[in-house]
Design brief:
By secondary structure, the protein is α/β, with parallel strands linked by helices. It has helices spanning about 15-25, 30-40, 45-55, 60-75, 90-100, 115-125, 165-180, 180-190, 200-210, and strands at about 1-5, 25-30, 80-85, 110-115, 125-130, 135, 155, 190-195. The radius of gyration is 17 Å and the shape is globular. The structure holds adenosine-5'-diphosphate.
């Protein structure tokens, strides 16, 4: 199964992708995670992308599309979840071409819906393990020991772009560039909207029934 998962920052795309790949043999392709890994490893891509991530702006399309092309070309038939790509209409058009060139097909596009008013609190409270990437929330899901990851014992920190001023820029970029994709994919189909409110397990139940996957 090949999926596109999109929605506003803080909707829970990463969390839902993680739950999905626990059950299905799929490759999770998160452009945000790929950029962060490149920044950590100080690669050429990381150096190009860093300023954009720090400011909460979209990385230029040419860089982002090149990255996705590289990843999709090396999947060897494995199903995938695209998380955080496409993020605007230009990227959506490029993806469509790429999918066709590679002889692939998108089985479903899932829009994870969370009202804007809820997003700021989700994002400012989010904490992430520096080592394994497990995510927490200071109120909804704090680690058992303050600042220490339950999974691997790594340091639990706030993502630099989860500071309030950067979040505002990310939400603006979403409204301007990404939200219009709803109309694009509604027309293109198969498209489904999933309510992203509630616990991650509750949302996953809705996701799995929308995708006809066992939960
Ligand atoms: P979120 O969805 O919570 O904003 P991500 O981890 O998906 O977080 O993205 C973090 C940052 O990575 C974005 O603010 C942007 O700078 C960059 N980024 C990720 N995906 C894309 C994309 N498809 N196009 C441009 N920039 C992107």
């Amino acid at each position: 199964m090949n999926l596109i998962l999109f929605g506003p920052p803080g909707a829970g795309k990463g969390t839902q992708s993680a739950l999905l790949i626990e059950r299905m043999q799929m490759q999770h392709i998160s452009t945000g995670d790929l950029f962060r890994a490149a920044i950590k490893n100080q690669t050429k891509l990381g150096k190009e992308a860093k300023g954009f991530l720090d400011r909460g702006e979209l990385v230029p399309d040419s860089i982002t599309i090149g990255l996705v092309e590289e990843v999709l070309s090396s999947l060897n038939g494995k199903g995938f979840i695209l998380d955080g790509f496409p993020r605007n209409v230009v990227q959506a058009g490029a993806l469509e071409k790429l999918i066709e060139q590679l002889g692939l097909k998108i089985d479903k596009t899932v829009f994870l819906e969370v009202p804007l008013a809820k997003l700021l609190g989700r994002l400012t409270g989010r904490r992430v393990c520096k080592n394994c990437g497990a995510t927490y929330h200071i109120e909804a899901k704090p680690p058992q020991k303050d600042g220490v990851c339950d999974v691997c014992g790594g340091q639990v920190l706030q993502r630099p772009d989860d500071k309030e001023d950067v979040i505002r820029t990310r939400l603006e970029a979403y409204e301007k560039s990404t939200r219009p994709l709803k109309d694009y994919y509604k027309l293109k189909g198969p498209y489904v909207e999933v309510d992203g409110l509630g616990t991650s397990e509750e949302v996953f139940k809705r996701m799995s029934s929308a995708l006809h996957v066992k939960h």
